[in-house]
UniProtKB/TrEMBL annotation:
<dbReference type="InterPro" id="IPR050088">
    <property type="entry name" value="IspD/TarI_cytidylyltransf_bact"/>
</dbReference>
<feature type="site" description="Transition state stabilizer">
    <location>
        <position position="15"/>
    </location>
</feature>
<feature type="site" description="Transition state stabilizer">
    <location>
        <position position="22"/>
    </location>
</feature>
<dbReference type="InterPro" id="IPR029044">
    <property type="entry name" value="Nucleotide-diphossugar_trans"/>
</dbReference>
<dbReference type="InterPro" id="IPR001228">
    <property type="entry name" value="IspD"/>
</dbReference>
<feature type="site" description="Positions MEP for the nucleophilic attack">
    <location>
        <position position="220"/>
    </location>
</feature>
<dbReference type="Pfam" id="PF01128">
    <property type="entry name" value="IspD"/>
</dbReference>
<dbReference type="InterPro" id="IPR034683">
    <property type="entry name" value="IspD/TarI"/>
</dbReference>
<dbReference type="GO" id="GO:0016779">
    <property type="term" value="F:nucleotidyltransferase activity"/>
</dbReference>
<comment type="similarity">
    <text>Belongs to the IspD/TarI cytidylyltransferase family. IspD subfamily.</text>
</comment>
<protein>
    <recommendedName>
        <fullName>2-C-methyl-D-erythritol 4-phosphate cytidylyltransferase</fullName>
        <ecNumber>2.7.7.60</ecNumber>
    </recommendedName>
</protein>
<feature type="site" description="Positions MEP for the nucleophilic attack">
    <location>
        <position position="165"/>
    </location>
</feature>
<keyword id="KW-0808">Transferase</keyword>
<comment type="pathway">
    <text>Isoprenoid biosynthesis; isopentenyl diphosphate biosynthesis via DXP pathway; isopentenyl diphosphate from 1-deoxy-D-xylulose 5-phosphate: step 2/6.</text>
</comment>
<keyword id="KW-0414">Isoprene biosynthesis</keyword>
<dbReference type="InterPro" id="IPR018294">
    <property type="entry name" value="ISPD_synthase_CS"/>
</dbReference>
<keyword id="KW-0548">Nucleotidyltransferase</keyword>
């Protein structure tokens, strides 16, 4: 079973405020997206990678990622649109995909991972564990961590209720799917559908999604604080 990974890296990174799209911000000298892609390849569980970046940075991304089994395409306005475009590239027949700089395998892969570029320190072992869980017969797999903080529902600044956190999980990427299932989930959702993760679209179809233990190192770099933490973690490693 061949495995492809889709890496949405087309976000603007406004919350990071680094003056460049987040995926292209250097983390200890190496752009975040390069770290994310190299982690996927180092896992030994991924055959090919499709990276979706802002249109203006297509050529720059191709240069940064040169020499790797990676296809680069332009993403969309929302993460969901970005992933949809990348899945379309995977779906194309072999020769068409190749003409467009796409994956060079024999036809579409059987398993697809979707992995945020913004999670540059994700351990390769977690990536391999997600693939292993899909191979073991789970068509939709997400890494998840319990919540440490108490969680409250609020209206404006007023607390309405306290949520029972024992049944809540913070969900990370990579998320792994049987390719046919993820394709079906995107097909069933409208082109304007927005989901904050890919498993959300699978859930909307009523299909089962299972969790495996996540890893704190798979945290998403969103704010300057996160970037600093990532730098410190790399210094200490
Ligand atoms: O904004 P957020 O941190 O939730 O984005 C998660 C991932 O989705 C990031 O890697 C970002 O680059 C990507 N993204 C994208 N296309 C968009 C918006 C976000 O590929 N239009």
């Amino acid at each position: 079973m061949s495995v492809a990974a889709v890496v949405p890296a087309a976000g603007s990174g406004t919350r990071l405020g680094a003056g460049a799209p987040k995926a292209f911000v250097p983390l200890a000298g190496v752009p975040i997206v390069v770290r994310a892609v190299d982690g996927l390849l180092r896992s030994g569980a991924v055959d090919e990678v499709v990276v979706a970046v802002p249109e203006a940075l297509l050529e720059h991304a191709r240069e940064l990622l040169g020499g790797r089994p990676v296809a680069v395409l332009a993403g969309g306005a929302e993460r969901t649109a970005t992933v949809r475009r990348a899945l379309d590239l995977l779906r194309r027949p072999h020769d068409v995909a190749q003409r467009q700089g796409g994956p060079s395998g024999d036809g579409p892969p059987d398993i697809v991972l979707v992995h945020d570029a913004a999670r540059p320190l994700t351990p390769p072992a977690l990536i391999a564990a997600v693939v292993a869980a899909v191979r073991a017969g789970n068509p939709a797999v997400v890494p998840a961590l319990p919540l440490a903080d108490t969680v409250k529902r609020v209206a404006g600044s007023t607390v309405e209720s306290t949520v029972d956190r024992s049944a809540l999980r913070a969900v990370q990427t990579p998320q792994g799917f049987a390719l046919d299932l993820l394709r079906a989930a995107y097909a069933a959702s409208g082109v304007d559908a927005i989901a904050t993760d890919d498993a959300g679209l699978v859930e909307r179809m009523g299909e089962k999604v299972v969790t495996i233990p996540g890893d704190p190192l798979a945290f998403k770099v969103t704010t300057p604080w996160d970037l600093r933490i990532a730098e410190l973690l790399l210094e200490g490693s």
